[in-house]
Design a protein that fits this description.
The structure is a single chain. The protein is built from 4 helices and 3 strands. 53% of the residues lie in helices and 14% in strands. The two termini are 31 Å apart. It is globular. It is of the alpha+beta class. Strands 1-3-2 form a 3-stranded antiparallel beta sheet.
């Protein structure tokens, strides 16, 4: 499933709300939480992580992974939490507006 522009950033922030993760862990968590509907490509994820870090919404440091390998772990900053709250509100309004336009499923008979 393709993501709307800007949606990946919001999904990353939401995923990091629950604690620090490395890039693979973030992608895996998004895929799992979406019931396998969203498969984040690393070619999109890592530029998003860099962009979010440059904006001060996340921070990172090198740590040992669960496989005892060196991995960069990302965590949400206070600014990231505030941005997530703002994005969540905008997303809810967007979903509601799309639902109003789309209405009922046109392929189903009205009953």
């Amino acid at each position: 499933m393709d993501l709307l522009q800007g949606t990946l950033d919001m999904l990353v922030l939401r995923t990091l709300l629950f604690g620090p993760l490395h890039g693979y862990g973030i992608a895996k968590a998004i895929r799992s939480t979406s019931n396998e509907a969203l498969d984040i490509e690393f070619g999109s994820l890592y530029p998003a992580l860099k962009r979010l870090e440059m904006k001060g919404l996340i921070e990172s440091n090198w740590e040992k992974s669960e496989l005892n390998r060196r991995a960069r772990y990302y965590r949400l900053t206070q600014s990231g939490r505030e941005q997530l709250h703002a994005e969540h509100s905008k997303w809810a309004e967007f979903v509601n507006a799309i639902g109003l336009v789309m209405g009922k499923d046109p392929g189903k008979a009205e009953g």
